[in-house]
Amino acid sequence: MNRQGTRTVSIADFKVAIIIPCYNEELTIHKTVSDFKKEMPGGIVYVFDNGSTDRTSEVARAAGARVVHVPMRGKGNVVRRMFADVDADIYLMVDGDSTYDARSAPGLIDKLLNENLDMVVGCRVDQGAVENYRLGHRLGNRILTRSVQRIFGGQFTDMLSGYRAFSRRYVKSFPSLSSGFEIETELTIHALELRMPCGELATPYYARPEASHSKLSTYRDGLRIVKTIVRMYMIERPLQFFSMLGLIFACVSVLLAIPLLTEYLKTGLVPRMPTAVLSVGLMLSGQLAIVCGFVLDTVTRGRHELRRIAYLSCAGLPIPER
User: Fold this and answer.
1) For residue range 279-298, what is the model confidence (pLDDT) as tens digits?
2) Is 73 domain-assigned?
3) Which of 97, 107, 263, 302 is in the most buried spot, having the most CB atoms within 10 Å?
4) What is the DSSP string of 79-107?
5) Considering only CA atoms, which of 186, 257, 168, 195 is closest in space to residue 225?
């Protein structure tokens, strides 16, 4: 019972899996595993080693984790294996770099259970050190998060956080396509497109231990995330995407045609034939893009229905008594 006499759902009633993707985290994985085993004594800790060249696997196993090797490089590939291979009621995903707060784990899961959610994102709150969360990463995260809000909706404030709690229903309906660090973007968009109940919880974010280095490249991975957003926009919102593209083609076509039409009305001649051909080609391309948008929108609706059926085929978490 809580203070209002409401019967809440207990974590102890569920099988909880703590899933940790990592690569060359020998210096941090022991602390990460130990901290989460301490805070979540009933949970099973899985470390998915993405082909580390150091002693990550040995250290994780010594700390009490179950180690799974994933040779195909990329965080997205690791998440795909984690979601496919681990069977649980609740999944808690966290990076193995010891930057996320293990003490927040029960709070994330409590929120997932007692608010009947499918995903809870741990929003990073910097603990004061500049190196915790580099300015470039912070700025990029803000821009990308707002871009996703504008395109797909939702109220997420830290879209790129690697600290998340999921229901089984979410995990087993997630069709992972990404291979790298853009996986967090795909996780967020999947929840928004299926209109799943989601939430956020502020969690402390710590600096990496000395001599430990981030695997995230600000520019390379940032560009991959941008490409993922554009790709997901094209896939999930084809009518909007191709209509906008068709409108751009049509506007350029009209701008090119205006001086040609003016000259034709004055002299009866078309002075620049290549420009006229280009203008006609652009207008036809614009019309074709809009037609493609309508066709792909129908296909996308069918895909959404199939994903929704897959989502509903998994039993949801019990609703707390009010």
Assistant:
1) 999 999 999 999 999 999 99
2) yes
3) 97
4) HHHHHHH---SEEEE--SSS-B-GGGHHH
5) 186
Its domain, for residue 304, covers 238-312
4 occurs within a structural domain: no
Residue 159 domain flag: yes
Run of H or E including 265: helix 238-267
In the listed set 215, 236, 257, which residue is the last one of a domain according to the structure? 236
DSSP 3-state of 299? helix
CA distance 110 to 108: 6
Dist CA 250 CA 37 (whole Å): 60
Give the relative orientation of helices 135-152 and 183-193 as an angle to the nearest 10 degrees.
Answer: 20
| Structural domain total, the chain | 2
Indicate the range of 134-138, 167-171, 185-189, 219-223 predicted with least confidence. Answer: 134-138
Shared domain check, 308 and 196: no
DSSP string, 28-70: THHHHHHHHHHH-TTSEEEEEE-S-SSSHHHHHHHTTPEEEE-
Does residue 188 sit in the same domain as residue 52? yes
One domain, residues 269 and 163: no
The least confident of 10-19, 248-257, 268-277, 287-296 is 268-277
* pLDDT: which is higher, 127 or 242: 242
| Residue 246 amino acid letter | G
* Identity of residue 185: T
Considering the domain architecture, whether residues 68 and 190 belong to the same structural domain is answered as yes
Residue 31 falls inside a structural domain: yes
pTM of the complete model: 0.81
